Amino acid sequence: MSYNQQLDPHSQELLQQYRSKLPVYQRMERIVFNLLDSSLKEHGMYVNAIEHRVKEEKSLAKKLELKGTKYQSISDVTDILGLRIITFYTDDVDKVAAIVKGLFDIDWSESVDKRKAHQLTSFGYNSLHYICRIPKSVEEDPEMPELNELRFEIQMRTALQHVWSTIEHDIGYKGAVKIPDQYRRQFSRLSGMLELVDDEFSRLRTTLTDYRRQMQALVASGQLQDVPLDVDTFRGFLEMKPFDRLSRRIAAANQAEVFPAPLMPFLPILIDLGLETLGDVQCFIEENQEYAYQMALSNLAFTDLDIVSEQVGLQHLCIVYALRQGRGRFGVKRIFELLNGRRQDNDTIADMVMSQAVTFPFMNEK
After folding, report:
1. Shared domain check, 276 and 163
2. How many Å apart are CA 260 and CA 254, to the nearest integer?
3. What CATH number is given to the structural domain containing 104?
4. 8 A C-beta contact, residue 16 and residue 74
5. CA-CA distance, 165 to 124, in Å (whole number)?
6. Between 20 and 30 A from 178 (CA), which of 37, 55, 285, 352?
7. Could you list the residue range(s) of the whole structural domain that residue 248 is in?
């Protein structure tokens, strides 16, 4: 190749060593990526991406052209195999690092935490770099001992840090041309803004986690009136199976089985009905469950169903509540629109419900 002619003899020898060890690096890539991917999932770590590559020969040749004298052998080039773990939050970088340390042997003399070297006058984002080896406890092959000898690099950074680094590279900010002060100031401001956003996302996650724990404690203690109705609190409330007794009571009338069905889709309906706290939902159940049971029985009387949905109790509670509020046919249709989307048969269902509801005493409530 033409770039060989630009390399000195020592660099050409390093390039030849690279070619001979390329199968080792490629096998290392598969081992390391698979281990990282499975371990992160096992620890419940959700990351933006795990990037991995073995440096191409042309890219290595360019590096050797600039720094070939720095390396005695190809094993001194620690980033021929490189992986990058991109997290969503800054505090997840340290959690990922702890997992990496538990998986691989770390060469601490070559590893660097560039975050600690971050200066107020520096630009761009810094990441955590570990130089690693695969321990024999992970993979060992007597016919390929280099698996445990050659080093590789793992970089860990946040998604915003990664975006910033990519933009820097695209703009050519780190190039040899001196950037005028006015543009340096622009980079500095943008860098500071992104760093603040990165920190605030992590802080917001911590705050929301604390909030969820507080709400879970209130639910567990029965202080439902103090718990606002939202996605997190309703999901926790459902774990107590508050609608299970009514659904099973309805099913028992036909000696039917209850099959599982999601109840979270009813949250927008409950909010639309004006419920604001879990205490409101609890009262909603207690005050309407007998009417809901009677209405469900009137519907089941015309069927021979031996299986009913777990939604049956909550669905009839919503219908009864809407009718008792005076929402009439429109209110019933609205429930099914929120549940199933705008469909023509929503009108048919609403008409059928209204024809059956006229006999119930709550229809005459003031």
Report:
1. no
2. 17
3. 3.30.460.10
4. no
5. 6
6. 55
7. 231-364
Residue 242 phi, psi dihedral angles, 5° rounding: -70, -20
Residue 158 pairs with which residues in a beta bridge?
A: 87
**Pair 248, 157 in one domain:** no
Q: How far apart are CA 215 and CA 217, in angstroms?
A: 5
**Token code pair at residue 161:** 């840090």
Q: State the amino acid at position 327 in one-letter form.
A: R
Is the separation of the CB atoms in 360 and 291 below 8 Å? yes
Contacts 24+ apart (CB under 8 A), 320-328: 320/288, 320/291, 320/292, 320/295, 320/362, 321/273, 321/284, 321/288, 322/273, 323/357, 323/360, 323/362, 323/363, 324/288, 324/291, 324/362, 324/365, 325/273, 325/274, 328/354
Is residue 235 located within the same domain as residue 359? yes
Global confidence as pTM:
0.64
Walk along the chain (366 residues) and give the pLDDT tens digit of each residue.
456 667 888 989 999 999 999 999 999 999 999 999 999 999 999 999 999 999 999 999 989 888 878 899 999 999 999 999 999 998 899 999 999 999 999 999 999 887 665 554 444 456 899 999 999 999 999 999 999 999 999 999 998 888 887 777 666 555 545 667 666 677 777 777 777 888 888 888 877 777 777 777 777 777 788 889 999 889 888 988 999 999 999 888 778 888 999 999 999 999 999 999 999 999 999 999 999 999 888 877 666 667 888 999 999 999 999 999 989 999 999 999 999 888 888 888 888 888 888 877 777 665
Based on the fold, state whether residues 167 and 261 are members of the same structural domain.
Answer: no
Q: Is residue 221 part of a domain?
A: no
Same domain, 235 and 172: no
* Whether 186 contacts 124, CB under 8 Å: no
157 and 112 in a single domain? The answer is: yes
Question: Distance between CA 362 and CA 321 in Å, rounded?
Answer: 10
Instruction: Indicate the DSSP class of residue 362.
Output: G
Q: Which are the contacts of 248, defined by CB distance < 8 A and separation ≥ 6?
A: 258
In a domain, residue 113? The reply is yes
Instruction: Assess contact for 341 and 305: CB atoms under 8 A.
Output: no
Domains: count for the chain? 2
Examine residue 218 and state whether it is found in any structural domain, yes or no: no
